[in-house]
C-alpha cells in the first residue's frame, strides 16, 4: 500500500513539473553560404541549421509546422524520440503521415520521455540533404540529478554539403544510368564549413589557401570558448547525407559517456567515429597549455575522401581568440581501416544499471542488403525488395484497415543462404515493393542485417541503419555471412548498448534486438540519404489494434483522404 502511494505521488509531481514547449515554425528556402559558396538551403524560421529545441525529460513538445516551400511537400522527423503513444507524430512521409502541402500547417505533439542528445530533420524526398535539420536536446527532469559531472556544454551538429542542388541530385540518382552524387564539397559543423580553404593553411602541404572569414559570415566557424581546468560536455550528432566522420580535438582526450540518448560505460579515446544518424556526448577536460588554442577536426572515413577536413578552434579564454594553434590539426585515421572502425564500435557498452535485453527472441529477420538493377535503374534492395512507400501512409492504412493501401503480403523474412555475399549479385535484377513486417505486441524481435558486395567490383559499403520508435540492443557484429545457430553464441547479452542507429560494416553482419512495445508503424532504414532514396529500407508494424487516435490532418492524402471524408460525412 505504502509503496503504491509513493509511486502515485511521484507520477503526479512529475506531470505537474512537465512543461509544454510550443513553437511556430516556417520552412522555406533561402540563399545561404554554408561553406562560403552560395546555394539554396532549407531554413526553419530563416535559420540554418534550424533552431535548437532545448527541453527536459517529461516535457511535451508542440511544433506548428508551416510549409512555406512553393512546390514541395514537407515533414519533420524527430530522430531518437520514441513517440510512445504518438506514432502519427513521427514525421516519416508515406509511413506515419502525408506530406504537408505548400501553404498548410501541421501540428506535431509528442513527449520527450528521457534525457539525451537528439536532432530533427526533413524526411520527405532528400530534404535532409537540402539542410532541413536542427538539434533536439533533452536534459534531465528538474529536481533530478544529472549523473554526468561537467561545468559547461557545447553542441556540435555535423553534416555534409553539396553544391549541386538537391532536385538535380535526386534526378541523377533516379536516372538511367544512375549519376552518383559524389563526395561532399564540405563538412559542416553547426552548418558552417570551409570550401577550398583551410584554417590550417600555414601547416598544410596542400595548395589550399588560408580561409578569410569576416566576423558574421555565415560560413565563419564557431569557436568553442573554454576556461582552463574545467570539464565540458560536447554533444555530437551527425545528420550527414553520406559521410562517415571522425572527430578529434588536438591534444585532448575525449571520454565517451552517451550514445543515441543512452548512457554508456565511459571510455577514453583520442578521436571518435560518428556515422549518419548517431549521436554522442563526450567529456573533455581543458588540461592543456592555457596560452594556446587547439584545432577541432572532423574528417571523412569509410569512403575514399575527397572532402577537406572541417576545422574549428577550441579557444582557451586565457589565449587570444585570434591566435591560431601552434601545430597542425589531428590527422583523420585512414578511411579504409575498417578494423579500427569496428574496434571503436565494439568499445561501446551500456552504462551500469541500464536495462538488459530479454534472453531469447520470438521473431527473427535476416535482412540481406544488396545493390541491384531494375530495368537498368540502380537500386538498393533488402531481401530482394527495393522499398517504394505507398501513396497512403501505412499508419492510416492499418488504423482504418484499408486493404488496398499497400501489399499485405510480408516481404521475405530471410534470404537464400546460398547467396554469395563476397561477389557481385549473379542476377542483379530485383523488384520494388511496399510490403511491411507485422509483429505482435510485446514480443522480442531480432534483426540481423547482412552486408554483401555491390553491383560491380570488389566493394561492400558501410550502412548506418536507423530504427524509428525504438531503441534496440546491439548484440554483436561479425564478419562474413551470419551463421544461424552458431553466431548467436557470440552475442553480448550482458551489457549491449541501447541505440537507435547501428553500423553495418563491409562484408559483415550486425545483430539487433528490440521489444515491440510501441504500437505503431516504424521505419527502419539506411540513414545514408541517397541509399534510402534508392529503396534501402523496410517498415515494421506492431501492436496494430492498440494504435490510438490519429489526427485527421495527418492523413489527408491517398486512400485515407477519401475514407475520412466519408466517415466524417456520416
Ligand atoms: Cu534520421 Cu528515418 O531518420
Ligand atoms: Cu546505405
UniProtKB/TrEMBL annotation:
Belongs to the multicopper oxidase family. Residues 1-18 form the signal peptide. Pfam families: Cu-oxidase, Cu-oxidase_2, Cu-oxidase_3. It is an enzyme of class 1 (oxidoreductase). Keywords: Copper, Disulfide bond, Glycoprotein, Metal-binding, Oxidoreductase, Repeat, Secreted, Signal. It comes from the Eukaryota. It comes from Arabidopsis arenosa (Sand rock-cress). Its cofactor is Cu cation. Dimer. Pathway: Cofactor degradation; L-ascorbate degradation. One of its GO terms (molecular function) is copper ion binding. Residues 27-139, 154-317, 432-542 form the Plastocyanin-like domain. GO terms for cellular component: extracellular region; plasmodesma. PROSITE patterns: MULTICOPPER_OXIDASE1, MULTICOPPER_OXIDASE2. Gene3D superfamilies: Cupredoxins - blue copper proteins (2.60.40.420). One of its GO terms (biological process) is response to hydrogen peroxide. This is L-ascorbate oxidase. It is found in: Secreted. InterPro entries: Cu-oxidase-like_N, Cu-oxidase_2nd, Cu-oxidase_C, Cu-oxidase_fam, Cu_oxidase_CS, Cu_oxidase_Cu_BS, Cupredoxin, CuRO_3_AAO. May be involved in a redox system involving ascorbic acid. It catalyses: 4 L-ascorbate + O2 = 4 monodehydro-L-ascorbate radical + 2 H2O. Its EC number is 1.10.3.3.
